[in-house]
Specification:
Blueprint: H1 5-18, E1 25-30, E2 33-39, H2 44-54, E3 62-66, H3 72-78, E4 83-88, H4 93-99, E5 106-109, H5 114-117, E6 122-126, E7 129-133, H6 157-170, E8 178-181, E9 186-190, H7 196-210, E10 218-221, H8 228-237, E11 241-243
Parallel strand pairs: 3-4, 4-5, 10-11
Antiparallel strand pairs: 1-2, 1-3, 6-7, 8-9, 8-10
Helix pairs in contact: 3-4, 7-8
Amino acid sequence: KELSYTNVLDIEGAAAIALEFRRPTVAILKHTNPCGVGCADEDLREAWEKAFETDKQAPFGGVIVINRPMNLALAKVIGEIFTDVIIAPDYDADARAHLQKKKNLRLMQMLPSVAEALKQPVLRSAPGGLMVMDSDSKALGLDNIEKKVVTERPPNKEEIEAMRFAWRVVKHVKSNAIVFAAHDRTLGIGAGQMSRVDSCRIAVWKAEQAGLSLKGSAVASDAFFPFPDGLVSCAEAGATCAIQPGGSVK
């Protein structure tokens, strides 16, 4: 089946988020927004379950990307839901045969060269010409994160790892973007709202709908919190630490 315009954009976004992680990772995207991301030490099935549990409704007709070869165990689980595109670096023969039974599913192979391709300048049309922007090919600001603490209580090791994970994901969520996460999975995602506090509320609501606790979670914001209400909302939901670019006079 041919790829649609939206499919191509989703595939680009999926490849970019897969490259953020070194551990075995599964990400589910819908209309270029990640709706669930999970990591595991070895088992891709475990990574899938973490990603899928974040939001079991949104993945319908979405894009799934993994950064390890697809095995049969994972292929059988993914095959139970309707998916437009699956992306993996490779496919075990039995996994490929199983997935190819689904008539309208597109299987994509992510070649190593995609990492360099995503570093190319980003072009956007504008009235009268084009806008050109350098590509941010990785989540920035994670080096020496311990030295960038501005709160009276420094985050513990587990909170730092959760903030690292959330920061890598929130980079790929449309602004205003809020992501609640543990060290290895997303817990609630709020995307594309006109008010940042509304993105917070949606992320909290999504976590509640999924039956996931935000107690002790980390929250990431893709831009500064303009007012305290967003941070207060996140804290009331259970988050104990936050990572954000800063810059608000409030």
